[in-house]
Amino acid sequence: MSLICAITNEVPDAPVISPHSGAIFEKRIIEKYLLENGCDPITGQTMKAEELIEVKTPPIVKPKPPSATSIPATLKTLQDEWDALMLHSFTQRQQLQTTRQELSHALYQHDAACRVIARLNKEVAAAREALATLKPQAGIGTSAGPNSMPQHPSIASEAGGVATQPIEQAGMSAEIIQKLQDKATVLTQERKKRGRTVPDELITQDQIKTFLTTASHPGLHSASIPGILALDINSADHSKILTGGNDKNATVFNKDTEQVVAILKGHTKKITKVIYHPDEDTVITGSPDMSIRIWNVPTSQTQLLLRCHDGPVTGLSLHPTGDYVLSTSSDKHWAFSDIRTGRLLTKVVDTAEVGLTTAQFHPDGLIFGTGTDDSQVKIWDLKEQSNVANFPGHTGPISAISFSENGYYLATAADDACVKLWDLRKLKNFKTIQLDDGYEVKDLCFDQSGTYLAIAGSDVRIYLCKQWQDLKVFNDHTALATGVRFGKHAQYVASTSMDRTLKLYAIE
């Protein structure tokens, strides 16, 4: 049964019912009728459009026109639809091709921009290196005294009479042993005279707490191979700072004039250990290229080239006499050499035949400590060339050791996020400074009075000895700190980092 409009007698598109007569109407027609007459067309009763009731019906499927009922007409309709589909597909393919071309052009522009940025970064790095070299040249040579430096830092090479150390061991003569003993006796007596007193000029712990970053120098080493790996300060002239870098160079820098004094070039691999001679303008450097170089700073030339190891040099320490250097290597040996003649005096294999990672002389010079790959700290008697004590307890290779000037304390670190303090009189660990999980310790250093201990690694920290109180933490390096040293009377602290900067901390 279909619905029929009571006015038009046709099937309505939008049927509605009159509540008065119950008749069905086409909505648009009955609304027009009510607008003109205002009453139900069947009963004549007054009615408004709002009273109409809509009827919900499924959409009406109108029959096809007569022109589409034959087979030819149906085929023509299908052909028209196919043509329209093909035209739409062609348009879509054109748009896809255009989009692909635009994307290819954008990618080419991006690649070109990346190349330009890389080239500009390289040019900026080269410009910074040039600036770091040109800056000191403006200040060098202005003084006319006998100690004035040349206008251009020289570059050391193998030429120029560099002496290479013979491989044969000359041995520890009685004369050398007596010299070592005499020096130790003098140093011990001096330490006893000083007693427990500290210099009046020594910075107090309250002043240490007020230390701020007073200088940051990023231009001492190459920007293309970033990273400063080693640090030392001239104990006779605390304005001179020595650094060794990933760029295979060592740099002597004057912190007071902010000038580069010398750039020492000659190693074929990075420089991992550096020593500034306390009494002379001489520098000692060690490298994984298996060599140790003795440099003359005023001329920037290599005076001696020592080759006493068959593996990377991992540790260097200058004897208190200033005439001999101790070196360790991953070749499992430590060596004792004369830096005046270039002679290898003795070379001893580790008792456990494991790689050595670091070394330092005791302040008296008759004993020294080495670190090993198997977490051991070993104490050696230099005269007897024997291992006299072992300090186990760390986990991982030993990364740093440092003797206190008081002669009693030894600080050690490894890959276990802690620093251990050892009493050399009792041969035992009496304190462990536990650091944060994952903390890496790369360097340790007591100040010259033995009052403070500095730690470099994930940050730079200063501790008060005996109480082992944390006085100050510096965390402004953007990468791992690799070296730390105290200036005279702890008036400043210097640190280096893999971020290529030398930072100085002091009272502002």
From TrEMBL:
<keyword id="KW-0833">Ubl conjugation pathway</keyword>
<dbReference type="InterPro" id="IPR019775">
    <property type="entry name" value="WD40_repeat_CS"/>
</dbReference>
<dbReference type="GO" id="GO:0006281">
    <property type="term" value="P:DNA repair"/>
</dbReference>
<dbReference type="GO" id="GO:0005737">
    <property type="term" value="C:cytoplasm"/>
</dbReference>
<keyword id="KW-0853">WD repeat</keyword>
<dbReference type="GO" id="GO:0000974">
    <property type="term" value="C:Prp19 complex"/>
</dbReference>
<dbReference type="Pfam" id="PF24814">
    <property type="entry name" value="WD40_Prp19"/>
</dbReference>
<feature type="repeat" description="WD">
    <location>
        <begin position="391"/>
        <end position="432"/>
    </location>
</feature>
<keyword id="KW-0539">Nucleus</keyword>
<comment type="pathway">
    <text>Protein modification; protein ubiquitination.</text>
</comment>
<feature type="repeat" description="WD">
    <location>
        <begin position="349"/>
        <end position="390"/>
    </location>
</feature>
<dbReference type="InterPro" id="IPR038959">
    <property type="entry name" value="Prp19"/>
</dbReference>
<feature type="domain" description="U-box">
    <location>
        <begin position="1"/>
        <end position="72"/>
    </location>
</feature>
<dbReference type="InterPro" id="IPR015943">
    <property type="entry name" value="WD40/YVTN_repeat-like_dom_sf"/>
</dbReference>
<keyword id="KW-0677">Repeat</keyword>
<keyword id="KW-0508">mRNA splicing</keyword>
<dbReference type="GO" id="GO:0070534">
    <property type="term" value="P:protein K63-linked ubiquitination"/>
</dbReference>
<dbReference type="InterPro" id="IPR036322">
    <property type="entry name" value="WD40_repeat_dom_sf"/>
</dbReference>
<dbReference type="GO" id="GO:0005654">
    <property type="term" value="C:nucleoplasm"/>
</dbReference>
<dbReference type="GO" id="GO:0061630">
    <property type="term" value="F:ubiquitin protein ligase activity"/>
</dbReference>
<dbReference type="InterPro" id="IPR001680">
    <property type="entry name" value="WD40_rpt"/>
</dbReference>
<dbReference type="GO" id="GO:0071006">
    <property type="term" value="C:U2-type catalytic step 1 spliceosome"/>
</dbReference>
<comment type="function">
    <text>Ubiquitin-protein ligase which is mainly involved pre-mRNA splicing and DNA repair. Required for pre-mRNA splicing as component of the spliceosome.</text>
</comment>
<keyword id="KW-0507">mRNA processing</keyword>
<dbReference type="InterPro" id="IPR055340">
    <property type="entry name" value="RING-Ubox_PRP19"/>
</dbReference>
<comment type="similarity">
    <text>Belongs to the WD repeat PRP19 family.</text>
</comment>
<keyword id="KW-0747">Spliceosome</keyword>
<dbReference type="Pfam" id="PF04564">
    <property type="entry name" value="U-box"/>
</dbReference>
<comment type="subunit">
    <text>Homotetramer.</text>
</comment>
<protein>
    <recommendedName>
        <fullName>Pre-mRNA-processing factor 19</fullName>
        <ecNumber>2.3.2.27</ecNumber>
    </recommendedName>
</protein>
<keyword id="KW-0227">DNA damage</keyword>
<dbReference type="InterPro" id="IPR003613">
    <property type="entry name" value="Ubox_domain"/>
</dbReference>
<keyword id="KW-0808">Transferase</keyword>
<feature type="repeat" description="WD">
    <location>
        <begin position="264"/>
        <end position="305"/>
    </location>
</feature>
<keyword id="KW-0234">DNA repair</keyword>
<dbReference type="Pfam" id="PF08606">
    <property type="entry name" value="Prp19"/>
</dbReference>
<dbReference type="InterPro" id="IPR020472">
    <property type="entry name" value="WD40_PAC1"/>
</dbReference>
<dbReference type="InterPro" id="IPR013915">
    <property type="entry name" value="Prp19_cc"/>
</dbReference>
<dbReference type="GO" id="GO:0000398">
    <property type="term" value="P:mRNA splicing, via spliceosome"/>
</dbReference>
<feature type="repeat" description="WD">
    <location>
        <begin position="474"/>
        <end position="508"/>
    </location>
</feature>
<dbReference type="InterPro" id="IPR013083">
    <property type="entry name" value="Znf_RING/FYVE/PHD"/>
</dbReference>
